[in-house]
Amino acid sequence: MRKRLPNSICETNKSPIFAKCVRTPFLYHVKNNEWLMSYSNYYAASGLFHGSMSSVMGTQFDILMVGSDPRLLGMVWEKVESEVRRLDRMLNRFDPESEVSFVNREAGHYPVTVGEELWGILNDCKRYNELTEGYFDITLQGFGQVLLTEEDKGIFFFSESLHIDLGGYGKGYALAKIRELLEENRIDKALVNFGNSSVLAVGTHPCGEYWPVGLDNPFTKERIVDLKLRDSSLSISGNMPSHPRHIVNPHTGAFVDDKKMVAVVSEDPIVSEILTTAFMIAGDERVPVIASQFDIYEKHVYKL
């Protein structure tokens, strides 16, 4: 799957979404003995700021912001970078120091009290589980095996083998938090991208009425659809040639083997994120029923 955006600020069809930076300062962060790289650059000629992190929330992160004040854009980039890393430290189940990892280790033995933010996320995930007929499920085994207690903001697993995985939620949540930061700092034109699968478009492209994004068939490389994003979010889920079995049906425990790709566009990046997972798993007859529970702009389900 490939998304495209201009290299030069007014070239819309000639280069990848995010241009490569030249002579850009690099910053390195150490996490669990791994080096994480980030860099940023301001292109004065086009008023374009590009920030990138090489590995966060399981993928590459990029942001384009348009503006004439490089100091402001640099400050906003620092806030965005800090927020994304903070969320990764909380939600990444593969990080042994994250709050989610602690829950996964202990909640099968005794109730675990979680922080206010994670408590809100867990209740959000429970609500989305119900609205999607259980197809979105952070446990992959049935949310009924999770006990949430309001009094102490506690979580308990009825099975010691249970764990939660927020991979199908976290990037959408991060995009929602980033949008808040952009709005607070009056950034009205931006494109944010987690690994070419979770995208937030703020405002419009500087040389058009929307941000153009193209989706390609990952097996044939042929263009499937061209989308026009404006103040909206896009999420994509599908089986790739390199990852053909990575989505699990929580009702059966089996991998989804279909050569299939789903794209959802909505105002809420969390809704886009969770629905692509649900639509990948649900049968064709259930997709429109589930979609009717949400306010979405577009949904696309492709048999590849």
Give your account of this protein's structure:
26% of the residues lie in helices and 28% in strands. The protein has 304 residues and is of the alpha+beta class. Helix 4 runs antiparallel to helix 5.
Short description:
The protein is 26% helix and 28% strand.
Reconstruct the topology from this structure.
Blueprint: E1 26-31, E2 34-43, E3 48-56, E4 59-66, H1 70-91, H2 99-106, E5 112-113, H3 116-131, E6 146-149, E7 154-157, H4 170-184, E8 190-194, E9 198-202, E10 211-216, E11 223-229, E12 232-238, E13 260-266, H5 269-281, H6 287-291, E14 298-303
Antiparallel strand pairs: 1-2, 2-3, 3-4, 4-8, 5-7, 6-7, 8-9, 9-12, 10-11, 12-13, 13-14
The share of residues in helices is 25-40%
Q: Write down the secondary-structure element order.
A: EEEEHHEHEEHEEEEEEHHE
Distance between the termini: 12 Å
Helix/strand/pairing category: alpha+beta
Largest sheet: 9 strands, antiparallel
Low-pLDDT sequence parts: 1-35
Number-wise, the strands total 14
What is the tally of helical segments? 6
Rg, nearest Å: 19 Å
Give the strand order of the largest sheet, numbering strands 1, 2, ... along the chain.
1-2-3-4-8-9-12-13-14
Overall, the morphology is: globular
Mean pLDDT reading: 88
User: What portion of residues belong to β-strands?
Assistant: 25-35%
Which structural traits does this protein have?
304 residues; nine-stranded antiparallel sheet; three-stranded antiparallel sheet; 6 helices; globular; disordered N terminus
